[in-house]
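Example record used in the benchmark description.
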Amino acid sequence: MDAILGPLTVGELDQGDEIFRSAFSTYLGVDKETAWGDSDLFRTRWRARNTQVIAARMDGKLVGSNVLTLWGSLGWCGPLTVGPERWGQGIAKTLMVETERVFEDWKVVHRALFTFPNSAKHIGLYQRFGYWPQRLTPILERRVDSTSLPSRLDGSARLFSETLPQERAEFLREIREIGDALYPGLDLSGEVESVYHQHIGETILLFDDSRLIGFAVCHIGGRSETKSGRTYVKFAAISPGTARDRRRTALLKSVETLAAHRGAPEVEFGCNTAHRDTYRSLVALGYRSEFIGVLMSSPDEPTYQRPELDVLNDLR
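Model output (structure tokens):
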């Protein structure tokens, strides 16, 4: 029996979240309560304005889903999950067919995803749809010590939530400009607005004098895309140019300060190894890999994953 596809409804959120947790915990061999705790990745993405969740149903029951995210010229998907009892029935392939149709409707220039580098099954599935493996993306983490950090962000950084209403449209425009400098058409404003409107974290704005030169979209604590005690940096970047070491350090220090003083000192983010200088500097600071995935792209070429750019992001 073929799966029937359509948008995931609000009444299916609990079941969709359960399938997501069961699928990954079964595949990874981990306890789903310990691994994900009170995080809420599934619902927060469903609520975001720049996402679409495709549902697969059989006999009127939800059996799987895929989350599609639009970042301007870039479309990426995941998590794609199917209930373990339905594995091997072609549901993931059916979901990917619909995923590609939506990406065509969105007119994205580039498509990408994050998957398991040691799984021939996963890589083989996505290769059938034109996605090809690129560089590894380690998920890095470190516990920061609040006693070694300032009590507040310094004058070079502000929180998006604390800006004036009349300023926010301009900051979102400047964030789009930074994205466009990383890869033409890249737009992270939807992620900033999702965090702000859902009250699930903060976006740090980094300035050089009065000019915005970097930002970090952070999910903080439970009911966000991470669990209590953690700060997950979903996307962070500094604008291309000079003084990379200083600006990278300033943005990371702002993230760590925010994390420590929000009671979420376990800092976590992905860093694709194509960002050679960024990755090596993080390892030197004591960040260690919790998990390693691989970026897959269509077409088979990099977007913002380039050595001269400083970006923290994993597309999970």
